[in-house]
Structures are given as structure tokens and as C-alpha cells.
Amino acid sequence: MDRPRPGAGYLALLVGLAALWCLTCGLAAPELRGAGRLEWIAASVVGFSISALIVATVDAAYRTRYEISDHELCLRSGFVITAVIRHRDVATVERVGFIPRVLGWGGGRGLANRLTDGLQITLHSGAVYYVSPTNPEAFSDHIRSVSADCGSG
User: Fold this and answer.
1) Are 95 and 77 in contact (CB under 8 A)?
2) Full-prediction pTM beyond 0.70?
3) For residues 139 and 1, what is the distance between their CA atoms, to the nearest angstrom?
4) Most exposed: 1, 101, 103, 104, by fewest CB within 10 Å?
5) What is the C-alpha separation between 105 and 84, in angstroms, rounded?
6) CB-based contacts of 143: which residues, under 8 Å, 6+ apart?
7) What is the pLDDT of residues 45-59, one digit of tens each?
């Protein structure tokens, strides 16, 4: 099992998002002073949704883990995102310098807690997963060897 530590860039992104959210709340609060019930309900729903996203991202930063068994790779990032990949489904494992989709933003599934030095796992189906193991080289070699034993690329 691998439990990578969150990277400084990832944590800076979280702090930036939280600060931006606090600034937005501070600027919006005076505007809601004379608002009606509907505006308060809308503001509450939006506020709760964004706060939940920030909490999920912080949780993913510290609870990301990867487990490799004989037949599958279990990826877990916080309480929200989980993936189980069978080794025979793995087409390629490539090292990436920058992880563009930390939590799956923009397409691929991101199960990473760092923005740099990760792996891109592509399946035969075309699905793409981004991970940030503690030792990307050893993790990549291990996945390749287990996948080769299962008859995959």
C-alpha cells in the first residue's frame, strides 16, 4: 500500500481556493442584507456546494492511497473518488511531469494529491487515470510487471 504525502503545489491550490471562497463570501454578504427568501436559499445551496467541494479536496489530499494486489489496482482519493483497475485492462503506464487533472477536472480521472511527478495509467478502453505515488518509478515498474503477468501491455 502506498499513501503519498500531498505536494506543496496541491496544498497551495487548496489554500488559494479556500481564500477565494472566503473573499467571495465576504463580498457577497453585504449584498444579501436586503435579499428575500429565494436569494438566501440560492446563496445557501451554492455556498454549501462549494464548501463541500473544498472539504472533499482537503480530504483527498490526506487520504489518498494506492493498493496493488495480484489481480487489481485499487485507487482511493478521499471519501469521494475510488477506482478499481484490473491489471489485464492496463494498456500503458507513463510518467508525467505535471498532472493536469488532479481530481478529474477536465476529463480523465485524477486520484492524485500532487501536481507534479506522477503517472498516467491508460486502459485498453481509453480511460485515463492520473496518480501520484510516493515513488513513481517503482510503482510504474510494479504495475507493468504485474500487468505483463496477467497478459496485458
Assistant:
1) no
2) yes
3) 10
4) 1
5) 19
6) 68, 73, 87, 90, 93, 121
7) 888 888 888 888 888
Number of domain units in the chain: 1
User: Whole-angstrom Cα distance, residue 17 to residue 57?
Assistant: 10
Query: Rounded to an integer, what distance in angstroms lies between the CA atom of residue 140 and that of residue 152?
Result: 14
Cell numbers for 67, please give them. Answer: 493498493
Instruction: Determine contact, residues 134/4, Cβ cutoff 8 Å.
Output: yes
Specify the DSSP class assigned to residue 131.
Answer: E
Tens-place pLDDT, residues 18-72: 888 888 888 877 777 777 878 878 888 888 888 888 888 888 888 889 988 888 9
Residue corresponding to grid cell 503545489 = 9
Expressed as residue numbers, the domain containing 136 is 1-153
Q: How many CA atoms within 13 Å lie on the side-chain side of 17? A: 15
